[in-house]
Specification:
GO molecular function: DNA binding
Strand order of the largest sheet: 1-2-3
Helix content: 55-70%
Number of helices: 2
Number of strands: 3
Protein name: Nucleoid-associated protein GMD78_06785
CATH class of one domain: Alpha Beta
Order of helices and strands: HEEEH
Subcellular location: Cytoplasm, Nucleoid
Family: Belongs to the YbaB/EbfC family.
Radius of gyration: 21 Å
CATH topology of one domain: Ybab, Chain: A
Subunit structure: Homodimer.
Distance between the termini: 37 Å
Strand content: 15-25%
């Protein structure tokens, strides 16, 4: 029955780790990320859940004859902010999956 004590200990450790993971994930979701393109002409803000919370466009970049440029700036800023969130998520949550050999978990 000695092995059962070890199993109980392992379960407690797993529960502790799960609580830490959930706390880290909650903190990540509350974070705000910001990226801009075109020298600050377009700024996109998103939270850690990858929800865009704000888009700011400077008036001087709005040119009805060049809508493509504005679209490109919005795409660039949005992709940049999403990449920042991915990097922070991997950095934050990766500490829990190190050595577990579970690729693509987060």
């Amino acid at each position: 029955m000695k092995g059962m004590g070890n199993m109980g200990n392992m379960m407690k450790q797993m529960q502790k780790m799960q609580k830490k993971m959930m706390k880290a994930q909650d903190e990540l979701h509350e974070m705000s990320f910001e990226a801009s393109a075109g020298g600050g002409m377009v700024t996109v803000v998103a939270n850690g859940k990858k929800e865009v919370t704000d888009v700011q466009i400077k008036e001087e970049v709005v040119d009805p004859d060049d809508i493509e440029m504005l679209q490109d700036l919005i795409l660039a800023a949005t992709n940049d902010v999403l990449n920042q969130i991915d990097e922070k998520t991997n950095e934050t949550m990766g500490q829990f999956t190190k050595g577990l050999n579970m690729p693509g978990m987060f």
